[in-house]
Amino acid sequence: MNQAQIDLAHTVALGLIDDEDHHAIQTIIDTEDPTLCSEFLRELRDTREALAELGASTPTPPPPALRTRLLAAIAAEEPPVAS
User: In sequence order, which residues have a C-beta less than 8 Å from that of residue 9 and are 6 or more positions away?
Assistant: First the structure.
């Protein structure tokens, strides 16, 4: 599978397809290359699973001192330093 096909699978997983994408998807699914079709469907499934996990994750709050450090760095016009 090439990068454009991988990108297409990601686009489908995100639900951002248009008419041109529909045609490209149909071309992949109708291909006589079963490996290409299965790789595309696997990439689509894996991407959907990753998005579902991401959506179900609980955000971790930033450390309390981060806001103070960022505001101080902005005031000093220096880039913040990760700790």
Answer: 40, 43, 44, 47
Residues 8-63: pLDDT tens digits? Answer: 999 999 999 988 899 999 999 898 899 999 999 999 999 999 999 998 988 888 89
Residue ranges making up the domain that contains 31: 3-76
Closest CA relative to residue 27, chosen from 17, 36, 39: 36
pTM: 0.65
Place of tokens 């220096």: 78
63: its two tokens = 């450390």
| 83 within domain boundaries | no
